[in-house]
Recover the amino acids of this structure.
């Protein structure tokens, strides 16, 4: 992944745009409660068992909140976004080795910056960034290196991808489920088209499955669901909850779905022409 000077300027500008807002965003919402948690591993195990299965996100958010220098913390958070968008831009070219990232990165950054329906909560909020941005980095980096190394796997690459796969699976609920389905698709395609490194690919995908199980089946999730504030929600039929989520909660996200689709078509088209 060679980066020349001209492309570096693009990344620096992207970083500066994110940092300019991140550095002026105060702590809010769950930042306060998670900042009170110590870095003691046993406290986070207790949190995992009693309230939340997002162990990776919860622990990393706590680490970020314990960085006293707010400028450093904001810089780390801003750099995280640039790296994520880089991997998203490079993902279509991971298997081919084509270097079109410099043309795709500005487009993806613009889409992410201008049309993210929840930019504040997923980027500038520290706990939100740990729950959605950092975990997404694990997901896209796993996919990138899996596609890049699928025909040249060795024990070191396999160990690295297995570790990242577990982290990606234990990211957040929606991402872990989507990634698990994608891994099933990868295994199925490998069975049909090429069985080279099939055992290694199955092993790597099993890391995602293990991480997803640790997240979704955590005792904390079940304990949290028993809270009195969720009784009315769980009294509704599953279909009713699903339709409510689509119609009421995610209406803004679906408003921008057409733009995301256009971006995917653009990337795929540029990849095919290259």
């Amino acid at each position: 992944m060679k980066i020349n000077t001209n492309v570096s300027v693009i990344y620096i500008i992207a970083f500066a745009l994110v940092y300019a807002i991140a550095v002026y965003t105060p702590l809010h919402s769950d930042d306060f409660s998670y900042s009170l948690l110590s870095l003691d591993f046993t406290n986070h195990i207790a949190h995992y068992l009693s309230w939340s299965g997002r162990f990776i996100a919860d622990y990393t958010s706590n680490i970020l909140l314990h960085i006293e220098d707010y400028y450093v913390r904001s810089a780390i958070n801003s750099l995280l976004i640039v790296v994520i968008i880089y991997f998203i831009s490079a993902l279509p070219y991971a298997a081919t080795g084509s270097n079109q990232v410099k043309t795709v990165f500005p487009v993806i950054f613009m889409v992410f910056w201008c049309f993210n329906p929840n930019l504040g909560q997923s980027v500038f909020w520290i706990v939100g960034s740990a729950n959605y941005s950092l975990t997404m980095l694990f997901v896209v980096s796993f996919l990138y290196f899996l596609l890049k190394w699928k025909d040249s796997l060795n024990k070191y690459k396999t160990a690295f991808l297995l570790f990242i796969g577990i982290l990606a699976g234990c990211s957040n609920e929606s991402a872990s489920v989507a990634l698990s389905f994608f891994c099933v698709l990868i295994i199925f395609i490998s069975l049909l088209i090429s069985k080279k490194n099939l055992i290694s690919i199955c092993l790597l995908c099993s890391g995602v499955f293990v991480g997803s199980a640790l997240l979704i089946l955590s005792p904390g999730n079940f304990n949290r669901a028993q809270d009195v504030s969720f009784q009315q929600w769980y009294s509704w039929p599953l279909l009713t909850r699903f339709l409510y989520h689509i119609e009421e909660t995610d209406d803004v996200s679906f408003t921008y779905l057409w733009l995301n689709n256009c971006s995917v078509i653009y990337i795929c088209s540029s990849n095919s022409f290259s």
Residues 5-273 form one domain. The chain has one domain: 5-273.
